[in-house]
Write a structure and sequence with these properties.
With 177 residues, the chain is mainly alpha-helical. Helices cover 87% and strands 0% of the residues. The termini are far apart. The mean pLDDT is 96. Residues 1-177 form the 14-3-3 domain.
Length: 177
């Protein structure tokens, strides 16, 4: 596994993990919403079961994220040769740390948030040099990084500024064609 994956292999890995994590993230949001409604109603009888189920989903989410982060850090990032692969994997690392930060609290949230920020920054600095502003991976990175600023750091102004900059850079590139 210490050789660069093909584009197809890289995309299959990404889609596979995205599907697995996406289902659990959706479940977590639904269960958390139900939990809040039951708490607001003062329905203590159901809260224990709801919390236990949310804890189970969180444990599954954490395991999935830790698995792919281990593969990224242990193999894929260090064996990446092309700028495109480097950006792709650092973006993926940022995404999975962001998913951990979505449900974590306290120190765990801070650690995941910091790791996500660092991965997105690394991806951005490589993307700026290696990929054109219209490249789908660079645009996807800008979108996910802006979602991180908005949802995890509660910084909507920074989120909008980042997304607008990516959009403006891409439009400027298209205007030169």
């Amino acid at each position: 596994l210490d050789q660069e994956l093909t584009i197809e292999e890289r995309n299959l890995l990404s889609v596979a993990y995205k599907n697995v994590i996406g289902a659990r993230r959706a479940s977590w949001r639904i269960v958390s919403s139900i939990e809040q409604k039951e708490e607001a109603k003062g329905n203590e009888s159901q809260l224990g079961q709801i919390k236990a189920y949310r804890d189970k989903i969180e444990a599954e989410l954490a395991k999935i994220c830790e698995d792919i982060l281990e593969v990224l850090d242990g193999h894929l990032i260090k064996s990446a040769e092309s700028g495109e692969s480097k950006v792709f994997y650092h973006k993926m690392k940022g995404d999975y740390h962001r998913y951990l930060a979505e449900f974590a609290t306290g120190d765990k949230r801070a650690v995941s948030s910091d790791a996500s920020l660092e991965a997105y920054k690394a991806a951005s600095s490589i993307a700026t040099v290696e990929l054109p502003p219209t490249h789908p991976i660079r645009l996807g990175l800008a979108l996910n990084f802006s979602v991180f600023y908005y949802e995890i750091l509660n910084a909507p102004d920074k989120a909008c500024q980042l997304a607008k900059q990516a959009f403006d850079d891409a439009i400027a590139e298209l205007d030169t064609l």
